[in-house]
Amino acid sequence: MTLPKSPIAWVLIFLGGATALCCTGTLGVMALGLFAEDDSTASPSRADVPGAAGRTGQPGAPGGFAFDVPKGWKATGEGRYLIEEKDDQNILGVEVVRLPSVPGLEDGEGKVARLWHERIGTDWDGVTSTPPVLRRFVSNGARAFFTGSPLRSKKEGVLFRVTLYLVEADDRFEPLVFIQSYVPESSTARDMSAGYSWDTSHKNVELALAGVRGSPVGAPLVDDTEVVGHFSYASSSSLQWVNTFTGATSMSAVSYNIKHVFSGDHSFVYEYAGASGQVGAMQFGTEDDEGEWSVKHDVLTLTGQKRTRKYLLIGAARTPEGRRTLYMMPDYPAWSLYPGAISQNAQLYVEKN
Question: For the chain, which residues score pLDDT lower than 50?
């Protein structure tokens, strides 16, 4: 199968700074605090850069970065590697493209957003200027900023899933682009079928990331000072029913709001309010708690008086309007950074005015 070759032009592009946000993508097998060192090795201090987590940690990969290409992948050009596998009669591919180093570790979200918008947007339709920022650890515990989305190739006119990573490496970022492809046995409903394939082919994205190492290691994914604040998250959905015999209609709905207040002394207040059921006969519920919060690498733990809650931290950027956010995934039903899991289970908390 032939993937679009236009992205190879990205390899020649030099990237500076920027501002904004970034999104989507990858398995929590490399996250969840699995690479945590002793707490004494991680500094909660904040770099003198707005929105940047403290970077004190231990040395990581020699030279700051290493990428071991998995067995079974074939080189398709300088800095490009591809694997293709059959899924029934469909062909699922993943190509990884290495880009030039980006100097400086400040403003990781902004640098991802600029590369995403200005460069990837040159060859792909569907690119936004302010994608939401995500963070994660790579295999040795170094941090990475990333975003991803299904995009349509301007050259071929079909959907791919493109994910961009910037991995911390001493005094620079090392960028990687993952391109997931779908070649169906039949062209019927190709876009819909392609969308169902991303989680399946994503395992090979994770396989490649297992060979990625950066530096430093032992630093937290989100700094304590990025957590302090008053954040809220809201969700709602509804479904309308039609009686095919009488023509009568009814509607059921689920709606809830969660508020977290994280104080600088590591105390927290939690509030939940929700409603569900048939409109006109809704059932309402509330819950509250308070206690202490703590962050260890990428896990936020709320030790409350009533129960303990845990969240995987996957982002702490700003909205286009400048409001701080916390992008978190509860430990139910399961922690996973696969694209489908992020879209279904992650919760974007926005700081209240």
Answer: 1-52
